[in-house]
Amino acid sequence: MERQYFGTDGIRGRVGRYPMTPDFALRLGWAAGRVLARDGKGLVLIGKDTRVSGYMFESAMEAGLSAAGLDIRLLGPMPTPAVAYLTRTFRASAGIVISASHNPYYDNGFKFFSSNGNKLPDAVEQAIEAELEKPMETVDSADLGKVERMVDAAGRYIEFCKGTIPTGTTLRGLRIVVDCAHGATYAVAPHVFEELGAEVIPVGVEPDGFNINEGCGSLHPRQLQTAVLTHQADLGISLDGDGDRLILVDEKGEVVDGDQALCIIALARHADGILQGGVVGTLMSNLGLEQALTARGIPFRRAAVGDRYVMEALQSEGWLLGGESSGHLICLDRTSTGDGIVAALQILEVMLSSGRPLSALKAVMEKYPQTLVNVPINAATSRATLLDHREITAALQSAEATLAGRGRVLLRPSGTEPLVRVMVEGSDLRLVGRIAQELAEVVRRAAETG
């Protein structure tokens, strides 16, 4: 059954436009509570990032869950992976994150985690949507859910993160710039690295409800690059608004993306004999990652774009390591979901054990030039149907013939925004850029004319 509200990463949209309204949040909390309470009264954790709308949605979601008979623990601003971890450790029925991840402050969204710290199965999301169609009923007053605030959530998560690298590991002597994007990690991430002994220069740690992801964080690493060079740091760590993405900057001020970080971790685990199976990337993963892994006999599989699909592929293969070029890195031998802080610690562990700087580690992978153009389209336009347009199909075939096996072309509808993403990859940067722009223009015309 096709889902009406849930996308590849929960529910997301512009605040004030349906479904990102307080009345929908109330009903969503109630509907989720109805599904989760089928096995009896349970507990749900709610975390959020630093958007000003988080207060409104937290209150509405809390009321809906209580009306369905679920108890609630409020975590306050907390990274998405922290909510997943705490949901698992508290044996809660579910965890909910109020966040739009890397989007601007005027967007928001809802992400759900199951009791084991994974994204909800499709069947559960469909069951919640089915409940949304029913009249809202409140349980008897004696059965209403109670609400408490969890005051030690940040400390619990900090200790968990530190425990994902070997006991006794110290970051003493390292200078690290940590960009928290004025988001959910602002009160957590700097402490993790400081408590492990590093000298930390924090940036993006002054949220005001409106500046989340604004010119900073994993989508905008230029500020971090400047800070690393200014402070002569050993590396920079850049997180997104909810803390599940990681982009790095090496000591030379050069960006290290998710593909390169994934390659570093995978090759280190392979060399140590602890890499179980292969590695999962996505359709957007750089060709250089695939070549670096397969050259060493490491199986590589591409999943659809989205950490949800990377996770599904990992579970299907029984593998432990996967990720996206955008910085979603999943280390299932360390935690149950993508986690920017945990992934950064794995990179630091490789740096310490090898005695090599990040600039040397990233050299194990040759990164092919890749151009990505986001083409905005009308929200009412069917993105999937659009890609079957005859002009787009012809342009795609022409582009592939031009590359003639020297690269890749991918047209992909975004799962979270009204966009079609045009990606072209190959050894010739100028050719790649020209083909990407030509394809993007064809998509724009097709979207306008139908």
What's this model, at a glance?
37% of the residues lie in helices and 20% in strands.
Please characterize this protein's 3D structure:
The protein is α/β, with parallel strands linked by helices and 450 residues long. It contains 15 helices and 18 strands. The chain has helices at 22-36, 54-67, 80-89, 122-132, 153-162, 189-195, 222-230, 258-271, 287-294, 307-317, 340-354, 358-361, 383-386, 390-403, 429-449, and strands at residues 11-14, 43-48, 71-77, 94-98, 107-113, 147-149, 175-179, 199-203, 235-239, 246-250, 255-256, 279-282, 300-303, 321-323, 329-331, 370-376, 407-413, 419-426. Strand 14 and strand 15 (329-331) form a beta hairpin. The longest helix is centred in the last third of the chain and has 21 residues, at 429-449. The radius of gyration is 22 Å and the shape is globular.
Please give the largest β-sheet. Answer: 6 strands, mixed
User: How would you classify the helix and strand content by structural class?
Assistant: alpha/beta
Give the uncertain stretches in residue-range form: none
Roughly how many Å apart are the termini? 27 Å
Number of helices: 15
Would you report the number of β strands? 18
Give the C-alpha Rg.
22 Å
> Given the C-alpha coordinates, what overall shape results?
globular
Subunit organisation of the chains = single chain
